[in-house]
Amino acid sequence: MEELDGNGERGALHFGAVTPALDVLSAALDAYLVEVQAGGLGRVPDADLLAETRAFEVHRRRLAAADTVLISELERRNLPARLTSRSTSTLLQGLLRLSPSEAAHRVATAHATGPRSTLTGQPLLPLAPALAAAQITGTVSAEHTRVILTALNTLPSTTSTENLTAAEQHLTTAAATLRPREVALLGTRIAAHLDPDGTLTTATEHQRRRGFALHPNPDGSYTARGYLTPSCGALLLATLTPRAAPRPAATTTTGDGDNSGGTGSDNSGGWVSGSSVGGSEPDPRSHSQRLHDALQDLAGLAVRRNEHTTSGAPAQVIITMTATQLTTRQGLAATSTGQLLTIPDALNLADETTLHLLTTTETGAILNHHRTKRIATRAQTIALTARDKGCSFPGCDQPPEHCQRHHITPWADGGTTNLDNLTLLCGHHHRQFQPTGWTCHSRNGTPWWIPPPWIDPTQTPQQNHRIQRQ
Fold first, then answer.
1. Same-domain pairing of 22 and 140
2. Are residues 56 and 20 part of one domain?
3. What range defines the domain where residue 48 resides?
4. pLDDT, tens digit, for every residue of 19-71?
5. Which residues form the HNH nuclease domain (predicted)?
6. Residue 274, Cβ density class (10 Å: 0-12 exposed, 13-18 middle, ≥19 buried)
7. For a tag on the chain, would you pick the N or C end, based on fewer CB atoms within 10 A?
8. Do residues 388 and 380 make contact, with C-beta atoms less than 8 angstroms apart?
9. d(CA 267, CA 261)
10. Distance (Å, rounded) from C-alpha 338 to C-alpha 330?
């Protein structure tokens, strides 16, 4: 690779030459692919095919050893900084079109098994010498390596050098005959053996390991990963557990047909009046789904409480969609972070934020920039609390602190942020009233709810019993 000039010339990224050894390897691989793709493996006996599969896997694994040397050399030359990359991982993502997680794994592996040297240039053994040697011989796969490094990193920082070295050697030896999952279980047993009472896991160690990340997925969802300190985990669990309690999927009663909407309710705030549809059913959500919904409610509550201290939206959402999508509510919009959302979800996401809506042509040219404070002001929120006294859905008893401000006529459809077009809804009913067919209307300045025909064929308007009738 040619040297970069003092101005960070990027030509080396595109015009450098590979080493002769890599040329030889490339030519050999070309010859092998020509042979196997021409059907050369179709003529070998079964035993030879199995041997070929094993041997090829060894060569595949050995390439990882070269990978660690390449990454170590990139860092030795400080190329990531010279190319204005934030980190080695960022450089690899752009250079090799890797995902952030894959790039991070490769860098971590290189740090553990790549070559090292002193400040004067004297060579040093890798941090994990046994694992580095197993890479060179092709004994361990990339997955084995990740599992072993994860197991070593979970050992307390107070673990002695002798025990750390023994653990590395034991795990690497086991990887020669065990699958990655079995090696991970062995790592757990080693940790339990070295710290049977948990006494080595000090408060300082918890602080070292702490971390949390939300990784965006291509479908718009997120994957959460992290390590919580005991105090953080206890606080979070204590907050989520009561919010994640099971609730009936449907509670029915035989209403008397008046405008009161019946006289019964359940602890979840669910309410169905009119024709009975078969009584109560168990909550169909799994425990993890209930915890997810509780976390969503908690996040919404935090946003709203923060807003009350500033009388304004504490966060903003920037959404880009075409004018046609805004009109038809079809297709996918993009947030400023690049996540794709359905148009209804994108508009609903702005319920608790200041919304910047950019409408574009089909080619991406900006047609208009709409900015609005969709959030009710502090004074409006106080007035809503005094009027609705909590979730306005019939039969719900959730307090105002657990509620969101809901536009009766949707903001995206021209609904205003005025008291007669606002009502309080708990997170559950805010998510569920539309899918189940309920609609809300304002009458004399107060919210009234109309059930779907499958619940009440007469669709008699109902109102929460706490709201003062006007």
1. yes
2. yes
3. 16-203
4. 999 999 999 999 999 999 999 999 899 999 999 999 999 999 999 999 999 99
5. 379-431
6. buried
7. C
8. no
9. 17
10. 18
